[in-house]
Every structure is written in C-alpha cells, then in structure tokens.
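Minimal example, chain plus adenosine monophosphate.
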Amino acid sequence: MRIVLLGSPGSGKGTQASCIEKEFGIPHISTGDIFRDNISRNTTIGAEAKKFIERGLLVPDSLTVSIVESRLVEEDCNEGFLLDGFPRNIAQAEALDKDLEKMEKKLDAVVNLEVSAETIIERMAGRRICSDCGESYNLCFLKPAVDGICDKCGGKLYIREDDKPETVMNRLNVYKNQTFPLIDYYKGKGILISVNGEQPADKVYGDICRALERFK
Ligand code: AMP
C-alpha cells in the first residue's frame, strides 16, 4: 500500500508510523527524520535544512521534493511506502501526484490524525527523544522507565530544538496555513481517512487498521 500520514506536529504520526511500518511491511519515510539525519552528519542538505527547521519553517519545496523523489525510487518502495511529514503543502502534494503518475502508481490512502490544538501543545512540551537511537517518549503518556534515559538503548533523552515553545508556535502556524488545506485536497480525491488522534495510541492504531481495510 502507498499511504500518507497527515497530522499536526505532535499528533502522534511517528508512533503510528512505526506500527503501520511493522504490520504492513512498508518502509516508513519521514522527511523530518531524513533532515535530522543530514544535520547530524553535517551534510550540505543538512546545513540548508537546519536554517529553516530551527525557525519552525518549512524547508523549501525544491529540496524536500527532490529528497522524496530519490527515496521513492529505491527498491524497498516497490510494494508501497508510508510517507510521514510529506507532503506538507499543496505544491508538494501535486509534485507527489505527478511523480506517482510517471511511475504508473497511485496513493491508496491518506490517514489524517485529528488532535486539538490544546492537546498538541501539551504533548509537544512533554516530548523527549533518545540522542542515540532516536526513540520517542512523552512525559504525558509514554514515560521512560528511568527519568531522562532511553528504555531501548540507555541513551540520554533530549528535547528537540524545534520542540521549544517559541518554535512550536511557528510550526503550528505553518501547519494551519500550509498543511491543513491538504485535508480538503485528499478528501476531494476520495482517499482521506480521518481518525480521532486524542485516543490512546493503541486505539488510534486500531481505528487506522480498520479504516485501511477498505482501501486494500
Ligand atoms: P517533523 O519531524 O516531520 O515534525 O519535521 C521537522 C521539521 O523538518 C519541520 O518543522 C520542517 O522544518 C522540516 N520538514 C519536514 N518535512 C518537511 C516537508 N515535507 N516540507 C518542508 N519541511 C519539512
């Protein structure tokens, strides 16, 4: 299956993406992860992306689309993929449509996680990431067993630079103005699935799986 996961920052996309990746056996492609990986390796792409990410702004479409295009032609995407954090505006969605058309493929479903602004702000303040393996935790609902330490690998947990309050407000505005219109875009194509993302993660996942059955 070819799936897009939509939702505001902090809506739980990363958590759901890991479950979908395992169950459906498709690669999880997160543009945010690709940028963070480039930043940590000090690549040219990382240096360019960093300027925008640290201000809570979108990385320019030209760079983002080309990264996704080169990832989608890799062999592990032949049977499908799960895009997380891409597309983030209409221009990116149209670019994706064109690329898929060229490959004679199409998106099967777009999963939209609906979460209120209040919940998002609370969740983002509690988010912690492992500095070694990248695992995500949340002090509100997914606490590590030992404060500040990753359950999986023992690495130190940190707050993502762009999860700091001043940047979070920019990210939420960008979402509202640029990403939110994608909901109508995909509704119009008849492939939008909206799921209540306020529920516990396992319930959200159950709803996603039930809804995806219709699109298989
Ligand atoms: P995320 O981990 O998906 O929340 O992404 C972190 C940051 O990476 C975003 O706030 C943007 O600055 C950048 N980013 C991720 N995906 C995209 C995208 N599709 N288009 C532009 N910028 C992106």
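The radius of gyration is 17 Å. The longest strand covers residues 2-7.
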